[in-house]
Amino acid sequence: MTAVSDSAPPTPDPLLCAALAADLDSADFRSEPLRRLWGEEADDALARGLREPILRAITGDDGVLATLGRLFVLGMPQPREAVATALAHVGVDGIESLGLAVADRDSVRPTALLRPQSFVDADGIGEWWIASDLDEVALDGPLPADHVLGVGGASRTLAEIVTPIEVDRALDLGTGCGIQALLIARHAASVVATDISVRALAFAELNALLNGVRNIEFRLGSMFQPVEGEAFDLIVSNPPFVITPRAEGVPEYEYRDGGLVGDALVEKFVRSVAAYLTAGGIAQLLGNWESRASSARLPEQAKRDDERGLDRLASWVPDDIDLWAIQREELSPLGYAELWIRDGGTTPRDAAFTPLLSAWLDDFAVRGVTAVGFGYVLLRRPRSSSAGSTRAPLRRTERMPQPVSNVGGALRQGLAAHDLIAEGGLPDTLITAADVTEARHLLPGNDDPSVIELRQGGGFGRTVAVDPALAAFVGACDGELTVVQIVSALADLFEVPLADLWADIEPRIRQLVLDGFLLG
Question: Is the pTM value of this prediction over 0.85?
Answer without folding.
Answer: yes
